[in-house]
Each structure stands twice: as C-alpha cells, then as structure tokens.
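Exam revision sheet. Question 4 asks you to relate a sequence to its structure. Input first:
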Amino acid sequence: MIQRIQTLFLLIAIGLAVAFLFIPFGYAPVCDDATHAYELMPMKGKDFIGLIVPIVTSVVFMIAAIFTYKKYPLQKLMTVLSGISIVATIGVVIYAVVSPYMDSNPSVTIATVWGGGALFLVAALIAVFSAYHYISKDQRLIRSYDRIR
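Answer key, structure tokens:
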C-alpha cells in the first residue's frame, strides 16, 4: 500500500533534498574589485551542477521507491540508491566548503564558512534510513503472514 509510514519518510526526504538546493550550505569569500574588501557570498546547491545531479537522481530514486510499493526488494534497492546519492552529495558539499579559496596572491588563502543547508542533507539521509527500516519491517510482516497460510 502506498499509505505506509515509509512513504511519509520518503516524502520528507524529498522535501529536505529539494530544500537543500535553495538554502545556503556555506559562504564563500568574494573580493570586491573597487574596495578590495572581502564579502561572504552564499553557496547554494542550485548554483553547482555537481550538487544538482546527485540530488535530482536521489529524488528520482525516492519517487520510484514510493511507487514500487508492491515489490519490496525493488523498493529497498531504490531507497538504498537514493541514500548512496545523498551520501555522494554530502561528500561534494564537504569538499566544496573545506577546500579554501585562493586569492590572486598565492600566499593568501581565505576559508569558507559553513552554512545550515548541509543539515538538510543529513536529515534527508536519516529519513531515507528510516524508510528503509520500515520497508524491511513490512517485508518481514508479509513473510510471517505467508508462513501462517
């Protein structure tokens, strides 16, 4: 059935993944040419193609997992693939924020600042793991009913 708790967790994960694209996950320094002062520019997921692709694939896998509710092994596979895609996105976010930006002068490095958007990915990953847990629980319940017959 589509009205299961794992569907709710997958919908929450989809909402968090889409929200990640629009919430800044970090702030990068930008030099103003006129005053030579540095300002912090927000880094959003929608600005990086390396973040858009894994998030969109993760959302597609989650939507496919919602609608493959009759085939538990396929639904579990889609959930695992979306979790792997979210982990890859977290890796790209960590790399983007941790790697320092270089100025025109090689001796000057300016570090980026973390934003709150990366927490949306962690929450989405937790929701995907919860959905996987409940899919497995439903699969065990169906097997137990089959044994009784």
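Marking note for examiners. DSSP finds four helices and five strands in the chain.
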